[in-house]
Amino acid sequence: MRRSSRWMEALALLVAGLLLSLVLDDAGAATPEFPPEFRIGYQKFGTLILLKARGDLEQRLTPQGVRVVWAEFPYGPPMLEALNAGRLDFATTGETPPVFAQAVPGSPLVYVGHEPPSPESEAVIVPAHSPIRTLSDLKGKKIAVAKGSNAHYLLVAALQKAGLSLQDVQPVYLAPADARAAFERGAVDAWSIWDFYRAAAELRLQARTLTDGRGLVANFENYTSRRPFAERYPALVKLVLEEIARVDAWAAQHPETAAALLSKQVGVDADILLPALKRRSYGAGPVSAEFLANQQKVADTLAAIGLIPQPVRVAEATLARIP
Known about the structure:
By secondary structure, the chain is α/β, with parallel strands linked by helices. It is 45% helix and 17% strand. The chain is built from 13 helices and ten strands.
């Protein structure tokens, strides 16, 4: 009986020791440094799809026991809906979708990085022989745009420059592929859109640029995550931003090679992708004060015209909790 009691005491001490070793590591943390799965949302253009094609991220994360899962979306808003719902861990969009996403009560979205501004990468375009020559000529016209996208904000800014508003035109809210079809058959008078769709319309449909984003918008491409995920796995967020920066540097130096690689991924001719790649800026980095100020400007504009249901304080979607 005594021997059994001693055995039970020894077993209890062993179990307690094992539990303690699980709870306390050298840093005093209970959470593993990397998750078993990393879910990334991407679109048919930009650095993330190049990162996916090259396999660089998998090379670094597979030894850490992380499975990378890629999910393609047609544009930003549905991607960030998935992020808000916990179906993604990391996403990339233009400057406007995160503002819409943050306006959803309880949104876990946080900014973790961004690219430099690329205002030339989006434009309001019209058919080659359209009588529309100035922004003022858009009054009363049908304009295709993806609702909640960065091109939506571009359209707002372009109209404001001409002394117009969304109420003075007929927005036709369409996803990019549907908007392209409507534009080609003449069902809309203009299209507010980003690259590579812009480049495709210019090269294949001889579309004419009414205005691009220069002087109107910054057009930051940004990287977002969910606060619980980013706070739990900061090493992973840092690692993926490092890999994005490396691919950025490579694409900036080798645009023709990048266009050829991207062409295989998206099924779009390289001659369309090349001008789109040359129009964008490269150099992913951490969240900056300039970026946050721009995002706040976007948020204030959208709130003022009623496109988001309530004002958004962008600083609340940062890991640093900037005051």
